[in-house]
């Protein structure tokens, strides 16, 4: 299920699904650690002997800008009750998030907290704290406080969950009463309850800290200013919100993760909460061009700090700089050693670092640029092309057009950066870039059409498959011209049923239907829009922006991809890269 709202203090990250359940709770860094680990914090209401979990009903959703407040409104016909909830960061000191509830009739409000602190249910403690008038969940140096704004003592229960046949305290709430059990350890949960009257606002707060004392410093929950009912211009609102999404997924140290949507773990016990150097570097470049150079510098500084001595990045990294999970083998099918790399992870990072240095400064990045450029210049075949690596989509081992283009961009950028300080080194990189360019023209371009091949396999045979990543090639590498490339790729990759561009024909990732080349991806569709902007075809760009607005919906969240027939979001949501490419399109059209 995609996320409807996301919030971040820079340490505490909260994701809310379209039914109002809190599904992501990260602390003390973005994407580290997932203290819900695929479970949820849910809300329920009891009225006149009947109970309903709000997350089992579809609310109306909206997002208020510039306040970044998410509102959900439920009509619970079986209870004769309407409930409204506003999700927002808590003002005041500390890392806290809260939900402001209102109901049109007297009712009892319940919240159940199903945590796995530090991504494990072993050794957790849930305890009612009379001083803070709420339940504390803690393990080691991770502490969470759940409480209501009401001055009266809430109803509460702590207990065992998912163990010895016990379901959890959420069952206790369904009769409108709670046991009052004050403490439990091990695999535990807790539920809080409070009365709510018509016209009253009750605030539920989540606070995070590194100790019990830290929780006492958090500001007490209280209602904020009323939500401003301002109409949203979808374009400007999505551009503003996209910048916020990028910032919300960036840690204080500068690590920029792809997504924090932990539902992806249902299909693979891993997630997108990693830093892919290439993806993050491209996003950072977009942020720089859109007026946020400090985000770019923070990210590239982080990448410079974690760059291996070899000058080459592997697939992805945790936000603390350690190597992330991967599926790329370290041996070839014949058992011989193989570098498990996507060379564009290094090339795009170096290229964007050079752009930052040339336009904004950033001399601290020079050692990274030098190590990376040295690697790129050396990792080549005798014919001038780079050696094989995995492609942009992390699937195929070959020499890929996009990768080759990024190597050229990085080497030429590094040569410009070092032109004044080390002329011999600069000229060597420029010579390497020239050789790669010549090899690209000779081996990666179809002589008959002038169009680039997607890749060249280890057997030396070119792959003519149309691939959306070809839209990212530098235009001086394209004999066919951008207009011909756009027409070819659109004809091959456009998804007629719901609109948007697929990655390539036969794309298997989250494939749900065979009636289209693949699911439409937001980034691919935005690459097409950017190409149309370059060609001056503004009406086409407007149509593609309108498509993106429909995909984003009322809460402005952009997923990775959508179902090729139904248009429902698939994979993670929001995806930072999707928001960045929308922002880049907005900029290129001169709207930002």
What features would you highlight for this structure?
24 strands; Glycosyltransferase; 9-stranded antiparallel sheet; alpha+beta; 5-stranded antiparallel sheet; Beta-galactosidase, Chain A, domain 5
Q: What do you see in this structure?
A:
The protein is 29% helix and 22% strand. A nine-stranded antiparallel β-sheet has the order 7-8-9-10-18-14-13-12-16. It has a five-stranded antiparallel β-sheet with strand order 6-5-11-17-15. A four-stranded antiparallel β-sheet has the order 1-2-3-4, with no helix packed on it. Among the domains are: 212 residues, Beta-galactosidase, Chain A, domain 5 (Distorted Sandwich), CATH 2.70.98.10; 191 residues, Glycosyltransferase (Alpha/alpha barrel), CATH 1.50.10.10. The two termini are 31 Å apart. Helix 11 packs parallel to helix 13. By secondary structure, the chain is of the alpha+beta class. Strand 12 and strand 13 form a beta hairpin. The protein is elongated, with a radius of gyration of 26 Å. The model has no long low-confidence stretch (mean pLDDT 95).
């Amino acid at each position: 299920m995609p996320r409807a709202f996301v919030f971040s203090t820079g340490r505490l990250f909260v994701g809310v699904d379209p039914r109002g359940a809190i599904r992501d709770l990260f602390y003390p860094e973005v994407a580290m650690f997932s203290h819900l680990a695929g479970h949820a914090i849910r809300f329920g209401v009891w009225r006149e002997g009947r109970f309903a979990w709000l997350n089992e009903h579809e609310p109306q959703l909206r997002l208020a800008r510039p306040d970044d407040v998410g509102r959900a409104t439920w009509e619970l016909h079986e209870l004769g009750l309407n409930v409204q909830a506003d999700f927002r960061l808590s003002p005041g000191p500390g890392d806290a998030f809260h939900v402001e509830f209102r109901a049109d009739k007297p009712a009892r409000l319940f919240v159940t907290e199903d945590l796995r602190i530090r991504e494990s249910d072993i050794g957790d403690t849930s305890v009612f704290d009379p001083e803070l008038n709420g339940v504390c969940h803690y393990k080691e140096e991770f502490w969470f406080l759940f409480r209501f704004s009401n001055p009266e003592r809430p109803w509460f229960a702590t207990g065992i969950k998912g163990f010895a046949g016990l379901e959890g305290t959420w069952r206790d709430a369904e009769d409108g009463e709670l046991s009052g059990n004050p403490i439990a350890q091990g695999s535990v949960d807790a539920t809080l309850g409070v009365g709510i009257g018509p016209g009253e606002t009750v605030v539920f707060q989540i606070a995070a800290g590194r100790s019990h004392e830290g929780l006492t410093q958090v500001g007490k929950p209280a209602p904020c200013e009323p939500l401003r009912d301002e109409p949203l211009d979808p374009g400007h609102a999505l551009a503003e919100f996209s910048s916020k999404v990028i910032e919300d997924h960036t840690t204080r140290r500068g690590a920029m993760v792809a997504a924090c949507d932990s539902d992806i773990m249902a299909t693979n016990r891993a997630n997108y909460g990693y830093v892919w150097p290439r993806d993050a570097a491209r996003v950072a470049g977009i942020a720089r061009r859109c007026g946020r150079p400090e985000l770019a510098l923070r990210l590239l500084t982080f990448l410079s700090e974690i760059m291996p001595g070899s000058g080459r990045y592997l697939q992805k990294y945790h936000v603390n700089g350690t190597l992330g999970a991967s599926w790329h083998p370290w041996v070839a099918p014949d058992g011989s050693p193989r570098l498990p790399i996507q060379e564009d992870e290094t090339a795009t990072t170096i290229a964007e670092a050079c752009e930052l240095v040339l336009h904004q400064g950033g001399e601290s990045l020079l050692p990274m640029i030098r190590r990376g450029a040295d690697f790129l210049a050396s990792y080549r075949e005798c014919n001038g092309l780079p050696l094989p690596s995995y492609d942009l989509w992390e699937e195929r081992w070959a020499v890929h057009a996009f990768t080759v283009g990024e190597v050229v961009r990085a080497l030429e950028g590094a040569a410009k950066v070092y032109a004044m300080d080390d002329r011999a080194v600069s000229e060597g990189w420029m010579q390497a870039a020239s050789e790669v360019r010549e090899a690209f023209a000779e081996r990666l371009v179809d002589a008959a059409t002038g169009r680039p091949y997607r890749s060249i396999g280890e057997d030396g045979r070119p792959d003519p498959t149309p691939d959306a990543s070809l839209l990212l090639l530098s235009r001086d590498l394209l004999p066919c011209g951008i207009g011909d490339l756009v027409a070819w790729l659109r004809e091959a990759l456009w998804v007629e049923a719901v609109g948007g561009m697929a990655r390539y024909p036969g794309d298997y990732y989250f494939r749900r239907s065979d009636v289209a080349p693949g699911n439409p991806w937001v980034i691919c569709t935005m690459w097409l829009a950017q190409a149309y902007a370059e060609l001056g075809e503004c009406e086409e760009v407007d149509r593609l922006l309108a498509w993106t607005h429909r995909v984003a919906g009322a809460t402005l969240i952009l997923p990775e991809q959508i179902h090729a027939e139904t248009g429902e979001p698939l994979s993670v949501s929001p995806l930072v890269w999707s928001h960045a490419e929308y922002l880049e399109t907005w900029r290129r059209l001169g709207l930002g």
